[in-house]
């Protein structure tokens, strides 16, 4: 009797084993993309990105040498699922060798142990090539986590023809901006000066940054969180009023309504950044020649800027080909050929973080859309006006989610209070130190 | 003796061979993941060093993740939204499906095959695709419906956070009504014709026949669809996830599954996500039990 039970158990066990083998077979065939065997001295690495020009960059690098072959895979943009994909790949042990991360995501990836500290091999590359404001964003806790791709100072884009029609000039201050907004609405009920994106916390962050806010800071080995400082409250209150008074569109970023407003010429300006120059061109190609760029309006008239977006190249944990990955990322961030390739698509106006590449990059960008205006010189001049000392938080992606939720249901200043409270809770829950 | 033993052994082997595929799949696809989820729900990831840049590790926290989930207002408000959704959706969708099935079953309807197909068609459209199409139909400026309603004096904002539940119910009802019509209609086909003849001879009109004879006779189909609908509703995800792309006031944790999704994929808090999942699974199990229990009891009552 016992014997027979064992037998049937063995039958079940046999079936389990064969299924497990089958599953294992699936697993290994799925992950060999990142494993990539070296063949004939060529190292294969994988690169994940959603950035315009990433494919062109990969091709250019592969052509420039024969030792390393980069395989590019397009992923959704960061907060639209790209980051989730990267995190899950790292946890599952089949991460790519190189990914693009926005500066605001770096601390979270670093503190969750998802990316490699590349200080040993690339620390000097960072210190010798990039301006201090940008170095700050990739050097955290005394370690170097990524190579900076672009600088993203704020830039104001506007329709020259429509501004002229309404007898407006590019606003110098936020008071000017509000006056212009009132004038536009008065002249044409179906038009607004610009859209405010309440679903994109990065926009409020850049505007607060410009006003001198610092949502995060480090004091020794402790974090300081201050979403509610006077500068942030002032900025949030200002935009809350504009939205409540219906002086700006309250639209979802890059939504069909926003695009429609742009295409129909009912949105006259964009609160953008250096990189928007190319994005705009791709959104409304038919309006070529009608757009111009200007420095962002400021609170007191003296030039100031925050950063809206901007990204870097990081090496996810688990990658075993750091050397090859760094050769590729160094090429991507420090050579003119890299930006030549990235800008060749015409839809990118990435401003190289490495300042001496700006002159080269400028030649690759067709300025016809801006009536020949040299937007590269304009935006690179804004880098010096970026307010120093801004640091992104250790759980910034979650905090952005909280802020987005809160801005959907509360007045913006109150949304900052909610975010402050939840961000502090989250940092404590993660086992980190808080100052004060 | 030996022969009998051999036969018995063979029978056992046969049974094992037939059971093995189920057991293996059950263990691999059900028991193992649930076990792993329970295990994960007991841990929380923490970062080392005051600033958190010294690497991350998982620490055992016991039941803390469950406490955090239950005491989180966001998780609880997800259940509140879900409850409102169920109260509107379940009676509306099942009632509508039953009414349509009864109509199909009467002789009144011409072109029965056409209606069967037309009613079922929405279910054949993948849920995500349907949700995206509805999203366009809800968006002012793009949607002909919104403009038409506004012209008719019925301006309606489908993305208003206070009434967005109706937009979600509409999407789900559109997809599932036809499916349930088919189940009810199939059950109605099984009602013996002589019973219907008898009720006709007794002078019952078609409405009376439908409500007093047909509906009680397909009770088990109604209980079954209610069970499926309750369990399906608890897992509400696709529709609100898509509406969320547009409705700014809608919380990212609008439904419990969205809360779990956010915890796992935005906040990377797998422990919290695992604990919340198990709480939700517990609720689904409890409700399924209640529905079947209640269904059985009323049936017994009806027979007695």
TrEMBL record, chain A:
The keyword Amino-acid biosynthesis belongs to this UniProt entry's keyword annotation: no
Coiled-coil regions listed in the entry: none
A Pfam family hit: SBP_bac_1
Signal peptide: 1-23
UniProt keywords, alphabetically: Cell membrane, Lipoprotein, Membrane, Palmitate, Signal
Cross-referenced SUPFAM superfamilies: Periplasmic binding protein-like II
Record's protein name: Sugar ABC transporter substrate-binding protein
Organism in which the protein naturally occurs: Actinomadura fulvescens
UniProtKB/TrEMBL annotation, chain B:
Keyword Cell membrane on entry: yes
Transmembrane segments: 12-39, 82-103, 115-137, 164-188, 221-238, 270-291
Location(s) in or outside the cell: Cell membrane
Keywords: Cell membrane, Membrane, Transmembrane, Transmembrane helix, Transport
Chief location bin: membrane
Source organism, top-level taxon: Bacteria
Membrane topology summary: Multi-pass membrane protein
Domain (ABC transmembrane type-1) ranges: 79-291
Classification via Pfam families: BPD_transp_1 (PF00528)
Keyword hit for Membrane: yes
InterPro entries recorded: MetI-like (IPR000515), MetI-like_sf (IPR035906), UgpAE/MalFG_permease (IPR050809)
Family: Belongs to the binding-protein-dependent transport system permease family.
Protein name as annotated: Sugar ABC transporter permease
